Amino acid sequence: MTIFTRGALGVALLAFGAGAATAQQLAPSPTLDAIRARGHLECGVHLGLPGFSFANDKGEWTGLDVDFCRAVAAAVLGDANKVRYTPTSVQQRWPVLQSGQVDLLSRNTTITFTRNATLGVNFQGINFYEGQTFIVRTASGAKKPTDLENASICVAAGSTEERMAADYFRERNIKVSIINFQKNDDAIAAYDAGRCDSYTAGIGALAGQRIKLKTPGEHTIMTETISNDPQGPVTRWGDERWQAVVRWVLNGMIAAEYLGVTSKNVDDMRANSKNAEIRRLLGADGNFGAMLGLPNDWMFNAIKQVGNYAESFERTVGKGSPLGLERGQNALWTRGGILFTSPFQ
Amino acid sequence: MTAASTLGVRPVRASLLRRLKADYFSTPLNAVVSVLCLAAIVAILVPLVRWSVINADFAGTTRADCTSGGACWVFVKARFGQFMYGFYPPSERWRVNLAACLMIGATALSFWPGLPRRALAVPVLWAGLLVVAAWLLAGGAGLPRVETRQWGGLMLTVFLSVYAGALAVPLGILLALGRQSELPVIRLVATIFIEFWRGVPIITVIFLASLLLPLVMPAGWDIDRLIRALVGLAFVIAAYMAEAVRGGLQAVPKGQWEAASAQGLGYWQTTGLIVLPQALRISMPAMTNEFIALVKNTSLVSIVSIFDLLGIAQASLADPAWVGMNMEAYAFAGTVYWLICFGLSRWSRHLETSRKTTH
């Protein structure tokens, strides 16, 4: 046996030993195993919410929540297209997740205590800060809810929005006149016809409704909200490693925006960046992917194929989309928003 | 104008006027009611035609092409493929078309007078068709697989109607016979089945099949969610069909049974050769009714996110490129449903009159 073959054998043994050590550290993940075995991610999405989850003319699912499914598929399987979508209604979303028909629910679902504590599900972070706010005519000059003094606000009678708005203004001793309508559609129509100065709903819903107005360009959706409805991807209890994967893909998309990594410059960043966190995120240094049992280029693939959070936001609900939403609270914590990620260390 | 043509037209117009007067304006009250009705029709029809035709936009590809203020049929045009086939891959849609052609062919053959041994040939023909069509649609055995979640639109509506109907008719006949049976156990089982499924709203059945079943099924078991909805629908419709057939059975005179027994025919021969053919002919209008109800009830599956024609029309409204096209989406879906149901009802009328035979 030459020294050469012995060296090769030694390297092989070392590699095997290292592999075994990693395998021992990894907790078993039936979900990841199942995804790899079937070759695609099963993702539960909304059955139709403008900007967040919808099928376009070509029949492809698109939207902010859909993008997250795609990013997870890219990280796990290396291909953002290896996702199959299960559209779900409000009533269906929990059973579909609980019974294991989907690996992940990415469906504008508000994170609440009771859901976490009683439904056997965990929320893996926040991909959209939803909240009730107001739409006004841009010409009115009102920028935040407290500017609405003496304004009239159209609402659907008995809705949560009506109660929230009434409480908000009463607590602050701001006089507004709330005009009740039987249905949401009537309230919007009345606002559009100029009967009220404002209409109130969640940011996402307002963005969808603004397109239906006669002159969408003349209306502004306030970025300050009067309620707090953070929304994010959901997984089942159990399989902690899978939950970590979902959580860190979301963190990775936000971190990529923070670090200035985009789908356009990701190749260059991986090859040339001197920033240690970027190098770890993209798998140029360290073995962050392997620690989760993923390929080391997991986030590289996700960012390359789907983009960072900002790219996804602008394309689906932001300025690059018909919805035209401002980032508002969904801007990074360094830019006046509250969107946050933990560090890749 | 010649004198002859004037002469030729006059009597007709006069008689038309006279008939109008006699039918609609015979008394002051009749005249008022007629005028009001006419006004109502005009008030509805004129804006409808203006919206759907005169001011409508047909050309273009995006919302920006809809500038006339009326209906934006561009939306339906852009989404037509989805409205018909759902998310069925465009390269495989020929399979759906072929299955539809086979179905039309089988229907024509079933009612072709020259078909030999009808009582045997029709069920065999349809059983074969259903198997072949299911293979064409789902794939496997040489064809690329297309998951049921990719099915949608009109194709799914027709699929659900035909397959639920095909399950419900034989099951309904058996249940109706069971309910008439002289064996108490069979009678009890049939009665319980009918009364249970007839008493539960279809929407509940679909919810249970879609939400509860996966939770209580053993791990690893997974029945396709379209199949779950299909079977749920079929059971409910079978219960209604059974009652329609029972009406027919009860209308067959008792003498027919007695005469058959006197000839030495057994139960199955009497039922199959003498009673059922007469009973089914009598229950035909009621069964058509149930089938039309079934076609419309298939739209209930959209509440569990199965995109049938109505579901896909609603889902299309979530595309920011087309948000707000509610009127167009529902008008289109409604028209298609109406065409199908009206066609079915005319066809059944035609069958009743053309195949009327006396005994």
Concise account of the structure shown:
Chain A has 14 helices and 14 strands. With 345 residues, chain A is α/β, with parallel strands linked by helices. Chains A and B meet through strand 2, strand 4 and helix 4 of A and helix 9 and helix 13 of B.
3D architecture notes:
The complex is a heterodimer of chains A (345) and B (359). A 5-stranded mixed beta sheet of chain A has the order 10-9-11-8-12, with helices on both faces. Chain A has a 3-stranded parallel beta sheet with strand order 4-1-5. Chain A has a two-stranded antiparallel ribbon with strand order 2-3. In chain A, a hairpin with a 5-residue loop joins strand 2 and strand 3 (61-62). Helices cover 41% and strands 16% of the residues of chain A. Chain A contains 14 helices and 14 strands. The two termini of chain A are 44 Å apart. The relative contact order of chain A is 0.15. Chain A has 2 domains: 29-128 and 230-335, D-Maltodextrin-Binding Protein, domain 2 (3-Layer(aba) Sandwich), CATH 3.40.190.10; 132-227, Periplasmic binding protein-like II (D-Maltodextrin-Binding Protein, domain 2, 3-Layer(aba) Sandwich), CATH 3.40.190.10. Chain A has helices at 3-25, 30-38, 64-77, 93-98, 113-118, 160-171, 184-192, 203-210, 240-259, 266-272, 276-281, 288-291, 298-305, 309-316; strands spanning 41-46, 54-55, 61-62, 83-88, 104-105, 121-123, 128-130, 132-137, 152-156, 177-181, 198-202, 219-221, 229-231, 234-236. Chain B is built from 14 helices and no strands. Helices cover 73% and strands 0% of the residues of chain B. In chain B, helix 5 (93-110) packs antiparallel against helix 6 (118-138), helix 7 (153-180) packs across helix 10 (225-251) and helix 12 (267-297) packs antiparallel against helix 14 (326-354). Chain B has helices spanning 3-24, 28-54, 73-78, 80-85, 93-110, 118-138, 153-180, 184-199, 202-216, 225-251, 254-262, 267-297, 309-316, 326-354. Mean pLDDT of chain B is 87; it is low at 1-8. Chain B folds into 2 domains: 3-75, no CATH class; 79-88 and 146-354, MetI-like fold (Orthogonal Bundle).
